């Protein structure tokens, strides 16, 4: 798809369907009319107990297939993979999605099996030049994600459009999941579902009040940290979980990024969110946090200090 392509949200794969199969995908071009494994077959192949809250993905290597499933796996993640593949092609490498299913309260995403290793497993053996090259590529990937924008002319009127933009502008659009649904970030796992929010200010106001949710109205106070969350940035398309376990690299040398995986927390967030979440998933004193993350994400130190105060206060650690 060309760089000036537009994709209306109404043209996204229908998220209301419990069973969606992409017959035009490479799986069916390769395997013809072969049926995908059923949810029962996936569960039977999994080593995890049936009620596991987050079972590991199940591989079907003979089919070049991996199935991510579980109670927290959402259709929105499958839609996200579909959008990235169609809008950004090879600029943001992701697994191709073949189908999704919802069965007994569990989501199942059928997608391309990526052959490689998590960057986490190779990092210690890489020399400085290899690490630098990977971070430069990550910067290119992040910049490409930032080019995916919602059309301001369709702002919050029921027909939002995803655009591939070559220029960024600090315009406020809804904060929420890829399909304009509630926020899916794990930080809010134990909070009541919330979003989408019409502006960054609405989101920041809500976020800053979370630590006071359990207080009586008479106990609530004006948050001293709220002024340090900017309301005038851009709402950007955000992965929300950029750590080395979700960055897949080739097993060959020099290592190359072959895919960014695990888009379950992705969505539209203020432009400071990606940096804050990357630090949230990293060791406080580690060089990944101190030296390498700043190579591919703009540092938002002040915002992170407020972010950290809030996520500790709500027990999201």
TrEMBL record:
Top-level lineage group: Eukaryota
Domain Aminoglycoside phosphotransferase: 88-288
Region (Disordered): 32-54
InterPro entries reported in the protein's UniProt record: AGP_Transferase, Aminoglycoside_PTrfase, Kinase-like_dom_sf
One Pfam family, short name: APH
Name of the protein: Aminoglycoside phosphotransferase domain-containing protein
Species annotation: Venustampulla echinocandica
